[in-house]
Amino acid sequence: MKYHFCSSGAFLFIFIILVTICLSIEAQTCNPSGKIVGKKPPPEQCNPENQSECCKKGKLYTTYKCSPPVSKHTKATLTINSFEKGGDGGGASECDNKFHSDNSRVVALSTGWFNNRKRCSHYITIHGNGRSVKAKVVDECDSTMGCDPDHDYQPPCPHNIVDASPAVWKALGVKESDWGEMQIFWSDA
User: Does residue 156 register a pLDDT over 50?
Assistant: First the structure.
């Protein structure tokens, strides 16, 4: 009888541990929060610079209110963006309402990582292409909205984007012909 009780207790203990691990993993995911319907941009209203995508009429675009959890080694997709006036980034940066030179190491983070401006003017360290570079957070890559004038008629950002100036790409030693998208890791500096 004792043996049966111990094995039942061990089974229950293992079961509780597995459920806890599964719930912990599920809590770390970021699920879509909705969809928006694309609108065709008016003529000359979407800047396709740096391989930027313009919204397509009727296409459904996924939105997110979250991003994956931040760690000392957060996986992300690095994209390229011009933060200059007239660049593909659209309006002035969210953090300081200014435009920034393409020679400045600046980034925009997906909505969840931007964290309601809590990372504004803070630096992150980006690891990619065998190098590391620090960059200043100046903007949000909006994962909740898009396809409107405020977002240069571009779709919402995915939930795992670090949108970087050309200066960041140069500092990482990436050939200009390879600029566009690259898998990276980042952390708060």
Answer: yes
